[in-house]
Amino acid sequence: MKKDLLEKGAILQRDKETYSIAPHLTAGIVTPEVLRTIADVAEKYNAAAVKVTGAQRIALVGLKQEDLDSVWKDLDMDPGAAIGLCVRSIKICPGTTFCKRGLQDSVAVGSKLDSLYHGKELPNKLKIGVSGCPNSCADSAFKDIGLIGGGKGWMLYVGGKGGAKPRIADRIALSVSEEKIYDLIEKVIQVYSENAGTRERLGDYIDRLGLEAFKEQIDINSYL
């Protein structure tokens, strides 16, 4: 029986025969040249659909297994971490780079987090959302780690998730500077990586440990 092909970034589709792949697009920002390449490859290999995903990627759906290597060669792009126990995606809103409502530079911060953590292996999947203002267009309160920009810095949320048992993230910081936010997120990921059980999501780990104990574990006060 066919199954997902982690090494090729390929997800088996409903027909149990074809696969979907999604090249990685940092911040969901893409050039016209890349769009043309994706369109050309989709046509060449008869993709059943080209779909924008919730992780700000563009998926090619309905590809034959024997074509996957050639598809990736023609795309000349890295796979998005759509499967596996790792940092899956960093969803990023336009922030002060483009949006009139932006209060913080979510594109710069989110892109740096993407370069640091995308694909990093962890006890379970972990998703990050970076929103430049409280409108939270990157769904930050439903991510394992969520940032929301405020007038004086970043609000930090931890433990959110969707799925069959959704969990709203806990806000553990109101105003963290950009200089400190990277170190704080590194600490959260380090503590989670070293202490969570296999396939335990960050929110489940926090619930098992207790929120106050988790805040002590990451030494939250040293970043405020």
From TrEMBL:
<dbReference type="InterPro" id="IPR052034">
    <property type="entry name" value="NasD-like"/>
</dbReference>
<dbReference type="GO" id="GO:0051539">
    <property type="term" value="F:4 iron, 4 sulfur cluster binding"/>
</dbReference>
<dbReference type="InterPro" id="IPR017220">
    <property type="entry name" value="Sulphite_reductase_assimil"/>
</dbReference>
<keyword id="KW-0411">Iron-sulfur</keyword>
<dbReference type="InterPro" id="IPR005117">
    <property type="entry name" value="NiRdtase/SiRdtase_haem-b_fer"/>
</dbReference>
<keyword id="KW-0004">4Fe-4S</keyword>
<keyword id="KW-0408">Iron</keyword>
<keyword id="KW-0479">Metal-binding</keyword>
<dbReference type="InterPro" id="IPR006066">
    <property type="entry name" value="NO2/SO3_Rdtase_FeS/sirohaem_BS"/>
</dbReference>
<protein>
    <submittedName>
        <fullName>Sulfite reductase</fullName>
    </submittedName>
</protein>
<dbReference type="Pfam" id="PF03460">
    <property type="entry name" value="NIR_SIR_ferr"/>
</dbReference>
<feature type="domain" description="Nitrite/sulphite reductase 4Fe-4S">
    <location>
        <begin position="86"/>
        <end position="219"/>
    </location>
</feature>
<keyword id="KW-0560">Oxidoreductase</keyword>
<dbReference type="GO" id="GO:0020037">
    <property type="term" value="F:heme binding"/>
</dbReference>
<dbReference type="GO" id="GO:0016491">
    <property type="term" value="F:oxidoreductase activity"/>
</dbReference>
<feature type="domain" description="Nitrite/Sulfite reductase ferredoxin-like">
    <location>
        <begin position="12"/>
        <end position="76"/>
    </location>
</feature>
<dbReference type="InterPro" id="IPR045854">
    <property type="entry name" value="NO2/SO3_Rdtase_4Fe4S_sf"/>
</dbReference>
<keyword id="KW-0349">Heme</keyword>
<dbReference type="Pfam" id="PF01077">
    <property type="entry name" value="NIR_SIR"/>
</dbReference>
<dbReference type="InterPro" id="IPR036136">
    <property type="entry name" value="Nit/Sulf_reduc_fer-like_dom_sf"/>
</dbReference>
<dbReference type="GO" id="GO:0046872">
    <property type="term" value="F:metal ion binding"/>
</dbReference>
<dbReference type="InterPro" id="IPR006067">
    <property type="entry name" value="NO2/SO3_Rdtase_4Fe4S_dom"/>
</dbReference>
